[in-house]
Every structure is written in C-alpha cells, then in structure tokens.
C-alpha cells in the first residue's frame, strides 16, 4: 500500500471516529421506520434451527443489500431455516436498524460499515458483532454535467448523501478532505455543502436543481443518471484493487452466543 493510500485510509478512519458521535445523535431523531416484509412461510413440521420459532432479519431496500433482498424473495433463508420462521424488517436508515439490534428486537442485520462500527462503539463493544461481508462496490458520485464537469467543479456545489454519518456520507467527507476542502461534518457546510437526503427523494431533488449531485448507492445512482446526471466518480476507483465493503452482516452478540447454529445457517444461505 502506497503512502498516499495509507494517508487516505487514515483520514477515512479519523472521519469515521469524528462522525460516530454525530450519528449517535442522528439516531435519536431520524425519521426511519421498520416495515414487516415476511413473504415465505416456514415449512410445517420441519425441524427448527437451534430450536427457534423465528429469526428476525433486517436490511435496506437498496441494491447494495442484494443478498438479503434476494435471500428473502427467493426463499433461500427460509429454506435453510426449515421450521424456524424468517421474519424481515426493511429499514430506511442505519441508526434505526442499529437501535433495533441493540434493543434486541432484531437478531441479524445487513448494514453499512459506518453504522456497524458506530453500533459497536455505542455499546462499548458488547452488543454487536460483524460476522460477514455482503456486498462490495455499487456507490457513485453522480453530478449535473452542466454545473460540474471535473472534480474541481465540485467545490462550492451542493452534494447529497443519504444521511448524517452513514457509510456514503463518511466516504464523501473523506474524499472531500483528500481534495483539500474543509467541511463541517455535523452541519455539512464548508467548501462543499453536504445535503443529507433520503435516497428515495434524492433523484427528485436532483431533477429540481436543489442539489447539484450526490454520493449514493445503487439504484439511486442509476436513477439520477436517468434524470440526466453523469457519473463523475465510481468509489471503487479510490480503493486498492477496486474493492471496498458496502454492506456488512451484523448480529447481536447475545443472539450469536445463544444460537451460533442459527447464525451459521443464515450466513450459509447468504453465500
């Protein structure tokens, strides 16, 4: 790893630690909610995994959570779990899923690296454990080509990220710091203005001109391209071998200790 890459990695780590307390604050008031999304029923009379009646699994409705989306819709998790019912909750944002995991209302969750680290830190390392990676890549900086034609044109513009302290927010702040721009992590003001916007509404904000671009996961990036946006940067190009974790699989440490077979079963179905 070169010195430049190491310096960039160090800045990313520092920004994660800087944003963690902010994400903790955001978790208190972020307007996301979980929605029950169970689709495939457990097989009557089939053996239950680890003696459990149900396992509660959470994820986002993003392509970057594809393994969970497909595992649910195709019934892969339910088939592996047999007589244990797989129950699903779809979240809009990381803080609400972390709260669900830490409170014990969720057993296993697909979530980005920054909220995963935040959840671990908030519990003093006692509540959560990352047990696997789920996806890599799928994040882009999409911009209005009439306003932004090169990286230097991003300065002074309004760039959306999904939420305060989420994985893409931290990545954009790190990249902005690499360009030499100063941005206040909490307010999003500075040499670039960071607008925290739900992925569902960002394409509309982009079309109306209220933001000039966005650092977002798929399918939001492709939706913005369909609105006339241009991919200025693929985040994969910033990482060694173009590989970086977009989504981790996280479990409650209590659930892991009590039901390791169940966790292994879900991981095998994910693979």
UniProtKB/TrEMBL annotation:
<comment type="similarity">
    <text>Belongs to the bacterial solute-binding protein SsuA/TauA family.</text>
</comment>
<dbReference type="Pfam" id="PF13379">
    <property type="entry name" value="NMT1_2"/>
</dbReference>
<dbReference type="InterPro" id="IPR044527">
    <property type="entry name" value="NrtA/CpmA_ABC-bd_dom"/>
</dbReference>
<keyword id="KW-0472">Membrane</keyword>
<protein>
    <submittedName>
        <fullName>NitT/TauT family transport system substrate-binding protein</fullName>
    </submittedName>
</protein>
<keyword id="KW-0813">Transport</keyword>
<keyword id="KW-0732">Signal</keyword>
<keyword id="KW-0997">Cell inner membrane</keyword>
<keyword id="KW-1003">Cell membrane</keyword>
């Amino acid at each position: 790893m070169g010195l430049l890459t190491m310096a960039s990695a160090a800045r990313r780590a520092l920004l994660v630690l800087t944003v963690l307390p902010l994400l903790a604050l955001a978790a208190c008031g972020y307007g996301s909610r979980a929605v029950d999304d169970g689709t495939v029923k457990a097989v009557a009379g089939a053996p239950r995994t680890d003696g459990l009646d149900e396992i509660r699994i959470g994820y986002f409705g993003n392509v970057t959570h594809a393994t969970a989306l497909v595992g649910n819709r195709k019934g892969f998790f339910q088939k592996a779990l047999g007589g244990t019912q797989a129950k699903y909750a779809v979240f809009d944002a990381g803080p609400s899923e972390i709260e669900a995991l830490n409170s014990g209302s969720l057993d296993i969750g697909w979530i980005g690296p920054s909220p995963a680290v935040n959840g671990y830190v908030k519990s003093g390392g006692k509540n959560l454990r990352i047990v696997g990676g789920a996806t890599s890549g799928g994040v882009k900086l999409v911009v209005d080509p009439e306003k932004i034609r090169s990286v230097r044109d991003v300065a002074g513009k309004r760039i959306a990220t999904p939420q305060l302290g989420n994985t893409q927010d931290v990545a954009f702040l790190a990249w902005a710091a690499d360009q030499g721009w100063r941005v206040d992590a909490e307010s999003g003001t500075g040499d670039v203005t960071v607008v925290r916007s739900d992925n569902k509404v960002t394409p509309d904000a982009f079309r109306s001109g209220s933001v000039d671009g966005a650092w977002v996961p798929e399918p939001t990036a492709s939706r913005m391209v369909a609105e006339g946006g241009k991919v200025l940067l693929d985040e994969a190009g910033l990482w060694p071998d173009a590989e970086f974790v977009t989504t981790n699989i996280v479990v409650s440490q209590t659930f892991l200790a009590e039901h390791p077979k169940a966790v292994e079963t879900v991981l095998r179905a994910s693979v």
